[in-house]
Protein arginine methyltransferase NDUFAF7 (Myotis myotis), 442 residues
Amino acid sequence: MLLLANAGARPLRAAARAVSPCLWGGKHFSSGKEPVENSPATPMLQHLVYKIKSTGPITVAEYMKEVLTNPVKGYYVHRDMLGEKGDFITSPEISQIFGELLGIWFISEWMATGKSATFQLVELGPGRGTLAGDILRVFSQLGSVLKKCDISIHLVEVSQKLSEIQALTLTEEKVPLERDAESPVYMKGVTKSGIPVSWYRDLQDVPKEHSFYVAHEFFDVLPVHKFQKTPQGWREVLIDIDPQVSDKLRFVLAPCATPAEAFIQHDETRDHVEVCPEAGVIIQELSQRIALTGGAALIADYGHDGTKTDTFRGFCGHKLHDVLIAPGTADLTADVDFSYLRRMAQGTVASLGPIKQQTFLKNMGIDVRLKVLLDKSTEPSLRQQLLQGYDMLMNPKKMGERFNFFALLPHQRLHARSHEINANHSKPSPSPVAGFSELTWQ
Ligand code: SAH
């Protein structure tokens, strides 16, 4: 497991907002930073300028999608942006304890829901594969509990580069990988501990079997539409070419209503909102699968409960980056609106959270795990890394309060079933869901 030497000192993707809230000037928005006339005209910028010249201003969602996941030039497609030499760092990369506790969460839910004979672990946006690797180590250590269970790993990843790194992390390529770029399952392998692992570009292609889903810092990279309230009603923020400076982009407002306005709540009181239809589609897909086959989804990200306004920002080299400058060289992200995710799941499955990362990890026993690892390690530098990693994950000023955990569960997981009702006809309390309350082994 990767433990970074200076984990405590590294800037986070969730560090702060990149741009001051957009001010509606009647005509166009500032991108929040001084213009950089000599900023590089990246291939992505040239592609976008050409696109806008041919079809007109594009939505922020279209911009994010092109910049991040365009199959030829997208930011995520050909680079490893994680870690010290990259643009940002995430919890699984900071401390092995993070993934281990998530591994325990999945086993605890698997046990609480009747120890199914099959167990598909599905990860959305697996980065370097570090989180999946740490979860699998826990599965190996608790092999006696899972021994009769048929486990498989399913990774949903659009990045060619990152999928190669994930394969190296998880399989060490001891068994040669099978590749088929044309197939929905574009790569297959076997993990170090002998578990089959498959790669997909789309969740839709993952077999609809009993599954446990995990998405860490995945929903925040999905494209958002931005809207500003004006005297004429909601107007979408678009991206156009600056007529004053060649090869420079700027924000403008759509002159009339646009279709994504349908995603804004009728009673919305904020004057600037971000909506993420793609997140809604994925939550509905997860919810339908969980309602159909059982299992659970655990989603962790930075976000809010329908309260924040302008959170769209960029990160490059661990620093905030103007979202419109040198597109394709920086990560783009927006806070996750958990109230929207909850609405999208409602009726199909139950949801829990969002709760703060600090509370979730505390409930999962992070203090006990830290103590065990500290007791085992004699090397002062390793102890220092463990303590710094703990501080980064738990400190409210670092990741402890910025990151949230949110879960989707079948309704029957939270409500006692009829055959469990005891002789007094009073409902037994359902077994608590770990993390959202203290972990107890049933
Ligand atoms: N979960 C990892 C990585 C977070 S970065 C961690 O916490 O360390 C976001 C990840 O989502 C990357 O692996 C990126 O390639 C992937 N990704 C981005 N957009 C995606 C999409 N539309 N579908 C699938 N994966 C996507």
